[in-house]
């Protein structure tokens, strides 16, 4: 994601249920839970008043804007990385998109970091190139849907469009009907110049961001309640995850080991993957590192 798109994501999609996942909807076709951003990360500063619960905040700037990056005691490795930096450096950050609304109703988006990696400038540009490509693809999809609202989703799927992108695009068009997406496309030119090797300083664009109009939509339908058998499988899966994580050096459960354990208890790999997907969708389990799981 670009920083500017995150800044404009002022609408939430909240799931129904005690452990349902929530998402941020951007004006430019993204439905976000966990995001990847890259740019220049500033030195972090401690915030909060409780010394027993440390919390640090830095600012990540890319050619389109800037976004706050935070980490606390529940993200120990990310927090350690933030604290270790004493000068602005290129970095890649993966974390949960978070929207906070103040008493005045103004929304502020940040990224709750789960992983922070400082990289060479060439690596930053390579990741930014992928971000720009995906962003432009989503903008193109929005334009196609807006020009042909009666075109069935199956047509887009046949062209290779992910179903998740289609869902996000329709939600974006409904929630942000008046956004100037052409202006955002023009703002991406600065990111393209950065990808091409422009070594000029990275700074937020001048002038205020585009006005965002929010249209509320009805609450989503309540998803089917998992059966007792589903919950029993989830319990087995989580018990094994906890056992592996408790004895591991890094506090994570290795996915391969976990799948092997639940297979020994009669849960075949396809079923285990389905259980994992449901737990991730509900926000119970997360995979901050590929192949490494933990409780969210």
Descriptive labels:
single chain; 296 residues; alpha+beta; OB fold (Dihydrolipoamide Acetyltransferase, E2P); Arc Repressor Mutant, subunit A; 2 domains; five-stranded mixed beta barrel; three-stranded antiparallel sheet; 9 helices
Overall helicity: 25-40%
Count of structural domains: 2
Distance between the termini: 22 Å
Identify the CATH class of the largest domain. Mainly Beta
Q: Average the pLDDT over all residues and give the rounded result.
A: 84
The largest pleated sheet is described as: 5 strands, mixed, barrel
Rg, please? Answer: 20 Å
Beta strand %: 15-25%
Count of DSSP H/I helices: 9
Structural class: alpha+beta
Number of strands: 12
Inertia-based shape: globular
CATH topology of the largest domain: OB fold (Dihydrolipoamide Acetyltransferase, E2P)
Q: Which residues sit in consecutive blocks of at least 5 with pLDDT less than 50?
A: 201-222
H-E string: HEEEEEEEHEEHHHHHEHHEE
- Lateral strand order in the biggest sheet: 4-6-7-9-8
**Which CATH-level-2 architecture of the largest domain?**
Beta Barrel
CATH superfamily of the largest domain: Nucleic acid-binding proteins
What does this structure look like?
- This protein is of the alpha+beta class and 296 residues long.
- The protein folds into 2 domains: 193 residues, Beta Barrel (OB fold (Dihydrolipoamide Acetyltransferase, E2P)), CATH 2.40.50.140; 68 residues, Winged helix-like DNA-binding domain superfamily/Winged helix DNA-binding domain (Arc Repressor Mutant, subunit A), CATH 1.10.10.
- Helix content is 40%, strand content 25%.
- It is built from 9 helices and 12 strands.
- The strands form 3 sheets. The chain has a 5-stranded mixed β-barrel with strand order 4-6-7-9-8. The chain has a 3-stranded antiparallel beta sheet with strand order 1-2-3.
- The two termini are 22 Å apart.
- About 7% of the residues have low confidence.
């Amino acid at each position: 994601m670009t920083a500017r798109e995150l800044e404009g994501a002022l609408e939430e999609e909240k799931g129904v249920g005690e452990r349902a996942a929530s998402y941020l909807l951007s004006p430019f076709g993204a439905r976000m839970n966990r995001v990847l951003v890259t740019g220049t990360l500033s030195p972090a500063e401690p915030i909060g008043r409780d010394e027993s619960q440390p919390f640090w905040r830095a600012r990540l700037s890319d050619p389109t804007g800037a976004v706050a990056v935070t980490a606390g005691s529940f993200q120990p490795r990310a927090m350690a990385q933030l604290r270790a930096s004493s000068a602005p450096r290129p970095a890649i950050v993966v974390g949960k998109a978070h929207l906070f609304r103040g008493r005045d109703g103004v929304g502020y988006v940040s990224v709750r970091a789960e992983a922070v990696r400082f990289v060479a400038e060439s690596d930053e540009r390579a990741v930014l190139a992928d971000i720009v490509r995906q962003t432009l693809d989503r903008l193109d999809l929005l334009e196609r849907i807006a020009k042909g609202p009666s075109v069935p989703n199956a047509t887009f799927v046949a062209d290779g469009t992910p179903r998740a992108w289609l869902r996000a695009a329709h939600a974006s068009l409904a929630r942000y009907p008046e956004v100037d997406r052409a202006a955002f496309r023009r703002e991406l030119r600065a990111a393209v110049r950065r990808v091409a090797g422009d070594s000029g300083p990275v700074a937020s664009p001048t002038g205020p961001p585009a006005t965002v109009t929010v249209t509320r939509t009805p609450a989503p339908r309540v998803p089917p309640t998992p059966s007792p058998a589903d919950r029993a499988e989830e319990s087995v899966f989580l018990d094994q995850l906890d056992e592996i994580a408790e004895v591991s050096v890094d506090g994570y459960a290795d996915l391969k080991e976990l799948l092997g354990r639940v297979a020994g208890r009669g849960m075949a790999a396809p079923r285990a993957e389905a259980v994992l997907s449901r737990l991730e969708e509900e926000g119970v389990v997360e995979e901050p590192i590929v192949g490494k799981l933990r409780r969210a």
